[in-house]
Amino acid sequence: MAVERDLELLDDYLSNRMSGAEKEAFEKQLDADIELKSEYQAQQQLIQGIKNARAIELKTMLKNIPVSPSMAPGEATLLTKVAASLMVAGLIGTGIYFFLNRETKIEQTISEPVAQTKPEVTEKEEPKTTVEEPAPKIETPSTQALEKAPVKEERKPSRKVARAAKKASKDSANLASNQGVIAEKRKLEVFDPTRESESAVKGKNKETSSETTTLNENSSSIQVETDATNKKYTFHYQWKNGKLLLYGSFEKNLYEILEFFGTDDKRTAFLFYKDNYYLLNEDNEKVKELIPITDSNLLKKLKEHREN
Amino acid sequence: MNEKEIFERICKGDEKALEILYKKYYRMMTKLVISNSGTEEEARDVYQDALIVFWQKAASGNLVLTSKMSTFIYSICQNLWRKELDRKKRLSNEEKDSPVELDTETAEKEKIIAKCIDQLGETCKKVLMYYYFEEMSMQDIADKLGFANTDTAKTKKYKCKKKLDDLIKAQYSEKDFLD
User: Fold this and answer.
1) What pTM was computed for the model?
2) Which of B23, B31, B29 minimizes the C-alpha distance to B1?
3) Which residue of A116, B123, B170, B176 shows the fewest CB atoms closer than 10 Å?
4) What ipTM score was computed for the predicted complex, to two decimals?
5) How far apart are CA B127 and CA B132, in angstroms?
6) Is the pLDDT of residue A110 over 80?
C-alpha cells in the first residue's frame, strides 16, 4: 500500500501543483512503484470526474444565458444606425444637388415642349405572387431625413406623370379640367380585374404599343407593378431595375406617381395615394416603408403641381 | 466593463464576468463555426466549450495573455471546431467500415464517479471543483467560500476528497459483489 506521503505527492502531481524537477522525480517513482501506479490511475479517473462535473456545471450556466440567435444585441442597432446615416447623407446630397441646380431648372421647365408634360400610358399591372429577392431588408427612413431633402427639391418639377391603377390619363390638361370625371372613370376601370390583365397582355400588341412608343419617345416612364399578396410588406415600395414595385392593395384606390427632374435628368418621384404624398427614394433597391410626407411647405407645392 | 476588467475578474473566478464575456463575443465566435459549415447549435456548443477552456486557464492563474482576449478565444474556437470536423469525418468513415467499440468498463466507472460527486454536499463539491478544475490556491478557495483561513480550506479539501474516495470504493465493492 502506498504511504500517505506518496498519496499527497500524487495529488499534487495530478492537480498540476508540482515544479518541473518535482514532476520528473515523481514520474520516476511512479514508474518504479506498481502499486502507486495503480493508485495513480484510479485517482486520475476520479479527478477527471470532478473536472467533468465542473465543466458540465459551467456549460449549463452558459447555456442558460439568453442570447439572440441571429443577431447579438447592439449589432442590430448599429446596422440601423448605419443604414439611417447613409439614408440621411443620400437625401441631403440630393437636396443640395437640386438646390444648386434649381435656378437653371426653372428656366428649362418653361422652355420644355408640351409633349413632355404629357403623362404616358405604359403602366401595366399584374398582381405579383412572388418577390424575386428573398426577404429584402426594410429600410425605414427617419421622418426627419425624409422631410429635409424634398423641401429643397420642391421648386423644380418639370414633368408630371399621373397614373391610375389601370391606365394613366392621356392628357394632363384634361386631368386638370376634368379631374372629377377622370377620377371616377379610373375607379370604374379599376374594379374590373379581368380587363386589367387583358390590357397588360395587350401591351404587347401592335394597336396599343404604337401609342406607347410615341409617348415613350417624349418622356421617360416609370413602370409600376403592384403586389397585394406579400404578407410581410403591406404598404411598402421598392425600386427594382428601374421599375417601381408597390406592395399593398393599391388596386382598390386611385394612385398617382409624380415625377420631378433635375438638370441632368435625375429624377425624384412621389406617390399620391388616398390624400397623402409619399417620397419614393431611388437611392437603392431595398424595400422601404411608405411614410406620408408631413412637411406642410412640401405638401403645398406637391398639391399645387398635382392640381395644375 | 472593458476587456482588461473582464479578464481580471475572470482570473479571480468571477462567474458574472464570464457571463458578460459570453454575451460580448457570442456573435463573433459563433459566426466562425456557422460560416464553416456548422449549425447555430454546433457554433454555440463550440463557443461554450472554448470559453470553459479559457476560464480554466485564466482562473488557474497560468494564463498570460500576449494577444487580445478575443483573439485568444477565437483561436480556441478554431481548434475545437477543427477537431469536431475531424471527429465527424472519422465517424462517418467508421460507420462504413465497422461498428465503434465502446469501452464499457471505463464508461461504467465514470458513471459511478459522477454519481458519487453528486452525493457530496454543495460546499464539498465546490472545494474539490475549485481545487482540481480551476486549480485555485487555498487562499482563493478560502476567500470564495468564506472559510476563516487557508488551513480550514486545506482541511476541508482533504476531508471532502476522503469522503469521495470512500463513496467510490463503496460503490465499487457493491458492484463487485453483484458481479
Assistant:
1) 0.52
2) B23
3) B176
4) 0.92
5) 9
6) no
pLDDT tens across A248-302, in order?
A: 877 667 788 888 777 666 778 888 888 888 888 888 888 888 888 888 888 888 8
- Asked if B18's CB is within 8 angstroms of A62's CB, the reply is yes
Q: Which residues contact B53 (CB under 8 A, 6 or more apart)?
A: B76, B80
C-alpha torsion angle, residues A31, A32, A34, A40 (rounded to 10): -40
B51-71 burial, b at 16+ Cβ within 10 Å, e below that, comes to bbbbbbbbbbeebeeeeebee
Interface touch B52/A50, C-beta < 8 Å: no
Contact A167, A262 (CB under 8 A): no
- The domains of chain A are located at 4-63, 75-307
Please give the CATH architecture assigned to the domain spanning B3-97: Orthogonal Bundle (1.10)
Q: Which residue has the cell 483573439?
A: B71
For residues B145 and B157, the answer to whether their CB atoms sit within 8 Å is no
- Residue A81 identity: K
- Inter-chain CB pairs, A–B, below 8 Å: 74
The phi, psi pair for A18, rounded to 5°, reads -120, 150
Domain ranges of chain B: 3-97, 104-178
Work out the number of other CB atoms within 10 angstroms of the CB of residue A50. Answer: 22
Average pLDDT, chain B: 90
Inter-chain touch A59–B48, beta carbons under 8 Å: yes
Alpha-carbon distance of B172 to B113, in angstroms, equals 10
The architecture that CATH gives domain B104-178 is Orthogonal Bundle (1.10)
Give the gap in angstroms from C-alpha B21 to the nearest C-alpha of chain A. Answer: 10
